[in-house]
Amino acid sequence: xxxxxxxxxxxRLAQVYxxxxxxxxxxxxxxxxxxxxxGLAFFSTNGEQVAGLSSNGLLSLVSIVFAVVLIAGAxxxxxxxxxxxxxxxTLFVLSGFVNLAxxxxxxxxxxxxxxxxxxxxxxxxxxATFGMYGRVSGKLPHDNPYWRSRHPQAARxxxxxxxxxxxxxx
Length: 170
What we know:
The structure is a single chain. This protein has 170 residues and is mainly α. The protein folds into two domains: 14-135; 137-170, no CATH class. Helices cover 57% and strands 4% of the residues. It has six helices and two strands, in the order αββααααα. The protein has helices at 14-37, 57-76, 78-101, 114-132, 145-150, 152-155, and strands spanning 48-50, 53-55. The protein has a two-stranded antiparallel ribbon. β1 and β2 form a beta hairpin. The longest helix is centred in the N-terminal third of the chain and has 24 residues, at 14-37. The radius of gyration is 20 Å and the shape is elongated. It starts with 13 loop residues before the first helix and ends in a 15-residue tail after the last helix.
């Protein structure tokens, strides 16, 4: 069984996933490139200011890697972009917690400061929300492609639980 069997293909929500991945990927790419262009020390735990956040060479490189992953998801589009957004968003939120724990220690290899932690949380939730939009909810409308793919019998006209009046279950 393929884990993606239940996912619909070619639906209009794919544009939301692509736009979210593309915009967030572009922002991370700019941040990473600015950090590398400044010639920051690669493993400095103090970091230097780049676009209002603390950064070092390693964080700049990690930002570029995640930017490439998000942009690749945007180029591929569809459910792949949604899944990439959810995964990267989750990693950003987890990164916020991990870096919050090592904030004032020698293990702060990405030179995080509190604004970086807040940025990681906010960006993670934004990226994950773009990925989950229209896909994850307990009350998806019956015309949603994910609801229809999860309920193929009820989605057909005249299927179980459907009426001829209004097309909704009674």
